[in-house]
Amino acid sequence: MSETLAPEQAIVVEETGAPQRGWAGQNVPRKEDKRLVQGEGLFVDDMKRHGMGYAHYVRSPYAHANIVSIDVSKAESLRGVFGTLIGEEVAALTEPFFQLATPPGAHIKDYALAVGKVRHVGEPVAIVVAATRELARDAAELVEVEYEPLPALVDARQALAEDAPLLHDEAGSNLAWSGLYEWGDVDSAFAEADRIVKITELHFNRFNSTPLECDGALVEFNRGTGQWTIYTNNQFPGFAAIMMGPAMRSGLDKLRFVTQDIGGGFGNKITSHPQLVAICLLARKLNRPIQWTEWRTDFHLTMSHGNERWFQDTEVAVKCDGTLLGFRTKALDDAGAYLRYEPLGGVIWAQVTPGCYRWKHVSLDFTQVVTNKAPCSPNRGYSRMQHLWFTERVIDIVAHELELDPVEVRKRNYVRADEMPYTTPNGCVYDSGDYARMLDVALELIGYERLAERRQDADSRGKLLGFGIGSTLDSGTNNFGQSRLINPELQFSGNNEVATVKLDIFGEIVVTLGTTPQGQGHETTAAMVVADIIGVSPDDVNVRAGHDSYWNSHAGFSGTYASQFAVTGLGAVKGASEKLAGEIRKLGSVVLGCGVDDLELAEGQVRMKGNPEAALPLMACGAIINANNAGLPEDLDVTLNARYVFRPQFEVPDVERKYGNLTLTYAAQVHVALVEVDSETGVYEVVEYAAVDDCGTRIHPQIVEGQVMGATAHALGAATHETFAYDEDGNLLTPNFYDYHVPHAMDMPPLKTGYIESPSPFTPLGTKGMGEGGGAGIHAVCAALQDALKGRGRPIVYDSFNPYHRVWELLQDPEASRVRVEVVAR
Amino acid sequence: MSTQDATASRTIIVEVNGERYEREVDARRLLIHFLRDDLDLTGSHIGCDTGNCGACSLLLDGTLVKSCMLLAVQADGSKLDTVEGLAAGGELDPLQQAFSDHHALQCGYCTPGMLMSATALLRTTPRPSEEEIRKGLQGNICRCTGYWNIIEAVKAASGQEVSVDE
Amino acid sequence: MLLREVEYARPSSAAEAVRLLDSRDGARALAGGQTLVNVMKARAASPDVLVDLNRIDDLRLISVSGDTLQIGAMATYTQIMAASEVEVSRPILGEVSAQIADVQVRNRGTIGGNVCSNDPTNHLPPLLVALEATFTILGSGGERVVSAKEFFLGVYMTAVGEGELLTSISVPAAANAADGFASITIGRDGTCIVNAAASLEGESPRVAIGCVDAVPVLVRPGGTDEESVHQAVQGARLEPPSDVHASAEYRLHLAEICAVRALRQAEERGR
Q1: What is the 3-state secondary structure (H, E, C) of A276-341?
Q2: B112 chain-A contacts, CB cut-off 8 A
Q3: Domains located in chain B, CATH noted
Q4: Topology (CATH level 3) of domain A496-646
Q5: What is the reported pTM?
Q6: Most exposed of A179, A517, A793, C115 (fewest Cβ within 10 Å)?
């Protein structure tokens, strides 16, 4: 049902900077598990405070409307209600959130509650706080809001039309941001081409990862110190703080973020800062702790939809043998009603401009608009997934139209292992990888040589068999300097993460991180890295779960997102551990009377190499420094409390040419899928599936594989069932798990996994961040469906989302989809 | 007042993981909220509004149910088993251990409900086939694992061989 | 997500339940709760009184007498799947019950709840129409029996009136019955996009199609061949709804396919 194939040839591990393999590479039992399997995890809604009030939101029923009046008096007079908050108050007490965009997007005014106007169904309008959850819900019904409905804009392709409803008056336009990206010599590429493949329109659908736990917070306000303590499951406190502080007219030190166990994030828990601001205001106003847990319906209506993107007027310059020379396209991105993390999506795709391929000449005209839908913000694969889907569709359609073998075409165009590190047309550097080899492994896993046989067998059962490949990249560790390509005035660049490691009075080794894991096993992998360096077992290392601003082990970019922990987080842990190790040796050299280089750390001691009897247990070291330090040399610089800020090597990109390295590492995945389509109904099933990944050095293989599997499941759900569909009035048709079908255990195909390891030459441990997965499953299923339907009029798969009814439509009217594609001979 | 009359609240007695609780509760209070908010048993979780996700799954008089679709008052006189009762004296039970061994949990949010469903399955079907496991867990959504490792863990806990993992 | 205030009663007999339902305006029976509690969470409906039927053992009985299989309205899907009486006398009921939702829902959800909620996407209404089931309703004035055709009246609407209670459902007992059921669902064993139930027991072929109208649509094909089924479905002039899962046109197409498949299955079993 799930098998893992180890590579047959020996893996070539580069020796640069790689640690000796001790714990790293083993499947150490996860530290997180013991509490989680006993139901003793601490998730935000588990927390209680004496006297706390429960918050319930009043939300807009309209996609677009002016707010004429709000009357909370009836709600406030209900027994058990502690108070309310409305937009007017928010506008008086806070500044609008900082906008990353240049004008017109820069002029959007975004507050913690709707002010004057609502711009998507579900938008928060007011909050009621009461003694119980039920009372808060009851009271919310008593809030009277008068609306003046306005026409709704739900199709991004209409957003810039003259008569389009205008969402933000202050912006004067529905344009959030636009930019033209051009590299190489696109005109010459097209002159050199044998064929130009034109595709009128491709569409990447709107969905997200629906983490099982919704957003939430419990906020306390200390009147004496003006300090807020925000217990929350926001996964990027660094970003939340930067957005909230100025909005609340507060220094960042007054915003203490504390996270504990988080029930999934996948990027969807990055932009909860508007809700956190509202709850903070209420905690101060009502002088009591305020508890807020988002309902599933609220999450679907308002949180973090993945970017919906059209690729229009695509032209691909190709040689007859399938060599890709270049492409032009217009990307139209639907950001929803507000720009919370956008328009960063407008540049982040450029981390993977040519996808896995050796395109040299690219022109991409990017436009992002606002619409009366839920705001978009990062979703697993953020903005790269959309673009990688595009590149995979392109190569698949090119192969399809030119009647070339999809395997051969990919191998012809893949960036080759011997070209690594490879610089892309816009200056990003793919660190390492062997995509062709991964494809071979995948083909073997799926039994590719028996494909013809399987087609016949499917045919005998009245089914159409399809085979599809999905190659993808998981770029990790952002250079935030790319934000300047969106807005040159932004003062962000580089990246960082912090860790502290200390050796305490009784020899306890304690680690704190700035990261906010939501299941990625940071406590375990961090402990493994520390254990290898300090010479103990991971059981001896106590890693505190979650993030706490009070620990001061965080920096501006702290959080868990963008596939970077294995580089930034573990880089910080490595740095702090090495610092600590150095101090232990220094202390050891003083106590044992020898040189620092004569000492090693092993088996819980610092001892002389070649003379293990001359040893000092770590417990003794801790005791000496913390409680028994008389007689130590005055200049001994040892605290046994190491703090390290990991900083990847980045330059600020060239804003003019939009050129530079935007990401440190590039994990890769190649998936293959076999689908069987019932041609009578369009219903299809994935009958066989293989996923091959390469994330460089694997610290904990089981955790890596778990991420690959999870990303695969997300992709399969997005390919077939999951959609945030809106009607023409802007009502969300899938606001809960009844209509938004999340795959369950019976929906998953048999899975085979394989891997190769191409360590990154750029990272302390050779690791590459991974976890997002780049949507490979979507690319593979799209390709497989197109292959399955080849014999039925050769329809083109043009959307990332292919529910049964769409497949049926492709079967019924293949010509309707073929109209989108034209091959012009030069 | 006879037990047959309609009331807006009542005193109920429930036994949870062998411990007896007597509380007054509003008729409208859902069983899952009663457990989490009134009894401080926060191991069972809430993940949706429509009874689809199964994070609230537990055993009611030995039967697997979703506690978000039961009123607390309906549990009057019943015995409940939740995730907190699985480990006896701090020792993980075979399912819990198997979940950890096979990396059948990542964020852990679906895990309590998943464990209760697996527990119920193994009681009715001690050596389930893969298909039976999938069907037995159909009512529990996980967004982290893709279910493959969970299925292996349940198989392993039932004493059956699983495919070799790296 | 959270219910409005409600009163709750837990009678121990059907008569007592009827008394409560009859005596209070806005009183509603609480069966499995797998639909009603969700409706109340969303506050789409908020009865004033819930009459919990779960302690009335008489309503859970499954029995065969003569050539009739009688199933108590409070029999859960799990019970129906496990009952030897069902296996022997009308197995399709157990097979279709096994496709509904998931284990947790099947352990609490009831056949009575399924038919009384009469959601157009439910499995059992079209099945019971095809099987020519009869429905026994208890009111303060006594019992009455209603045919399937008279039972299902509209979306979420049945012949069970205010102050009344569905007590049991009966179908003809027929070992090795020529019955069939086919559906297209959202994910495996998920909510139905279209479903159809067929039976060759009785005088002539019966095919009941669900998800296409407010109530199951019964068609009577002239024969069991595919062409006859197509003609019968087309003759019904269905106007199915359009939603996020299927356009009206696609549903119409699936209706024909499901009808054909259900009848084919019935034929195969009858051999």
Answers
A1: HHHHHHHHHHHCCCEEEECCHHHHHHHCCECCEEEEEEEEEEECCCCCEEEEEEEEEEECCCCCCC
A2: 39
A3: 3-85 (3.10.20.30), 94-157 (1.10.150.120)
A4: Aldehyde Oxidoreductase; domain 4 (3.30.365)
A5: 0.96
A6: A793
